[in-house]
Write a structure and sequence with these properties.
This protein has twelve helices and twelve strands. By secondary structure, the chain is an alpha/beta fold. Helix 5 (120-127) links the parallel strand 3 (110-115) and strand 4. The N and C termini lie far apart (47 Å). The protein binds glutamine. InterPro entries: Aminotransferase_I/II_large (IPR004839), Kynurenine-oxoglutarate_AT (IPR051326), NHTrfase_class1_PyrdxlP-BS (IPR004838), PyrdxlP-dep_Trfase (IPR015424), PyrdxlP-dep_Trfase_major (IPR015421), PyrdxlP-dep_Trfase_small (IPR015422). Keywords: Aminotransferase, Pyridoxal phosphate, Transferase.
């Protein structure tokens, strides 16, 4: 097999789901809900299965889906989005990120990644022949040092990846930070590739800023996004790339030869989600705020330190006081003995960092209570 494959391992996140399933643990590792999508979306799915949607959709996305998507993005960002020029529909943001990287980078190009980072980014960089260079997000608020970012840009990267709200730290980048990143990217002629699946899961007083909506940003920002988290449909694998027509023309080619297209009946059904009123997103936000409070209230009682997330639905818990040799051993013990699975934090860091386990709280109240009660054995 190719040498580049020895540079990264299988996904630890997906591996933990398999471990959780095999030992019957409550799975707070891979982030996905245990509750259903909105009723409107479920009904639309039933109808779509009887419709004429069983063959390939247009490779860059079914027209009705792109139309609805463009309207929703316009509502959120104020940008005029042309469904025929600015969008490629992909199999989740996972494919969108791969498409963005392969569109932006030549082999040998450097890409800035904030660390800790969602584990796909390093693999995406390596698979597209690029070399990740890292800039640290520093606990507790996960800000970066401007000097470190400037030094990274001086290495002439082709792109910078910004996960906002950020997985695994829960950081929500401020408008000022995004403007600074954009200015540096403009100075050094680099793309800003954003990954924003948690756009609607943000906790007050924090607010989500779309990097692509900042003044002058649209030509430079390649936005990757997903419907997975917003409509609780992680298994549908629906995402998209939003960018300038020049970038999209190239991204369509990458996407076409990688996958041909996302599932046609699911694109059709997901239109019902995209057409939900603003109140849906307000309720989603409130729902996740309650889940966060519930889960964090248990964590506080364990006495283990953690940083409260500003957005997304993950929390990094410092387990160093428990005396395990490392986080991987700790995560196995948590899954097998305590019955709660999380992800060893080391899979999100460039340097050896074994203090954390990442848990997610995208679960029903009863699941979070059951997991919380198990975690209290640590108190
Ligand atoms: N984003 C989710 C997580 O970090 C999982 C995404 C995936 O497995 N594709 O757990």
């Amino acid at each position: 097999p190719a040498d580049r494959l020895s540079q990264f391992s299988e996904s630890v996140i997906r591996g933990m789901t398999r471990l959780a399933n095999s030992c019957g643990a409550i799975n707070l590792s891979q982030g996905f809900p245990d509750f259903d999508p909105p009723e409107e979306v479920l009904c639309a799915l039933e109808q779509a299965t009887r419709g004429p949607y069983h063959q390939y959709a247009v490779t860059w996305g079914a027209p009705r889906f792109r139309q609805a998507l463009a309207q929703k993005i316009t509502r959120n960002t104020g940008l005029e989005v042309d469904p025929d020029q600015h969008l490629v529909v992909t199999c989740g943001s996972t494919e969108a990120m791969m498409v963005a990287m392969m569109t932006a980078c030549n082999p040998g190009d450097k890409v800035i990644v904030f660390s800790p980072f969602y584990e796909n980014y390093a693999a995406d960089a390596i698979l597209s022949g690029a070399e990740p260079i890292y800039v640290t997000l520093n606990a507790p608020d996960f800000g970066y040092l401007r000097d470190e970012l400037v030094a990274a840009f001086e290495q002439k990267p082709k792109a910078i990846i910004v996960c906002n709200p950020s997985n695994p730290t829960g950081k929500v980048f401020t408008r000022e930070e995004l403007s600074e990143i954009l200015d540096l990217a403009t100075q050094h002629d680099a793309y800003v590739i954003t990954d924003e699946p948690y756009e609607h899961i943000v906790y007050e007083p924090h607010v989500h800023t779309y990097a692509c909506s900042l003044p002058g940003a649209f030509e430079r920002v390649i936005t990757c996004n997903s419907l997975s988290k917003t409509y609780s449909i992680t298994g549908w694998r629906l995402g998209y790339v939003l960018a300038s027509p020049e970038v999209i023309a190239q991204a369509r080619k990458v996407h076409d030869f990688l996958t041909v297209g996302a599932a046609a009946p699911l694109q059709e059904a997901a239109v019902a989600g995209l057409e939900l009123p603003d109140s849906y997103y307000e309720e989603l936000q409130a729902l996740y705020a309650r889940k966060k409070e519930l889960f964090l209230s248990y964590l506080r009682r364990t006495g283990l330190p953690f940083t409260e997330p500003q957005g997304a639905y993950y929390v990094m818990v410092d387990i160093s006081s428990l005396g395990f040799p490392n986080d991987t051993e700790a995560a196995k013990w948590f899954a097998r003995e305590l019955g709660v699975a999380g992800v060893p934090g080391s899979s999100f860091f460039r340097e050896p960092e074994h203090r954390f386990i990442r848990f997610h709280f995208a679960k029903k109240e009863e699941t979070l209570i059951a997991a919380g009660e198990r975690l209290l054995r640590l108190a």
